[in-house]
Amino acid sequence: MTPESPMDSTASEKKHNERAYVTFLAGNGDYVKGAVGLAKGLRKVKSAYPLIVAILPDVPEEHREILRSQGCSGLDGASPSERTESKTSLLLSGTLARSDESEFTLEPLDLLVVTVCARIWFEEYSKMIYLDADIQVYDNIDDLFDMEDGYLHGVLSCFCEKIWSYLPLYSIGWCQYRPEVTWPAEMESLPPPPYFNAGMFVFEPNPLTYESLLHTLQITPPTPFAEQDFLNMFFAKVFKPVPPVYNLILSVLWRHPGSVNLETVKVVHYCPPGAKPWRYTGEEPNMDREDVKMLIKQWWDIYNDESLDFKAKSAADLKENLSVSTIIASVPRPSVICLSPPAPPAA
To answer: Which has more confidence, 116 or 74?
Structure first.
């Protein structure tokens, strides 16, 4: 059941009123560079809160070691009930029994939905900010933790890229960044509800929401944008937008020039084709723009800055940190590892 009104905040009821950032890592690809870059970016802007990295069992040991060297330690978050744990295990294996006992098969992208959109809602934090690993933070955004409780907060998506061409709104040029384009009466329908980009959102973990997410997933057909569509559907009634400076989708630079002042942007989302800094060649469309080149360079400046690397308080702390396993092999749900609080600035 999706929330129809502001959700009850359980922050005051929790033993520890904690806050954290969270990102996600799966497979043996190169997204580990994004996670490391994000951790260093949060240190650079002196965030007061740690970064949690939710990882799947298929993340290789080499990548886990990289994360550990950046201050990662084991985190055995709140354990779901036996029923929920069993359900999550089935989801991650790709099957789930429906209420009529028939088998429900999940597509790979639906597994990502479970990992990103469901599991992180069970963690014992009062409030979290999810950030994709292809995001970099260029200014402190801890103020987002003070957004109104009971709602999910995020930045509106731009619908001007060709990936949205399957929707009628694309053909009429309607976009949330173009208020001058009105919804045509001949469409004989209401304009779409606000739709956020799921690369960044502020949420409040809650076991009841977790259960509801898993239940809703069972009866929701697959959609082109998997977890993003699912989250927008589930939280439609309790979504509140925040300014684009908290998640600048890179394509807005050429789709809506002048709508965002780069000097005020706090978060950049390197999501268009060819925009991942660690894969950047400059050959894809719009990647040869000077503003794009500048933002790519800024990402690499942070990634290569050794002064932003994790600094253990002592050799013993470092040895202990590096010896901690970040995956519980017998548990098929995603493990969660925690990047230690931001390193102090270099003297």
So the answer is: 116
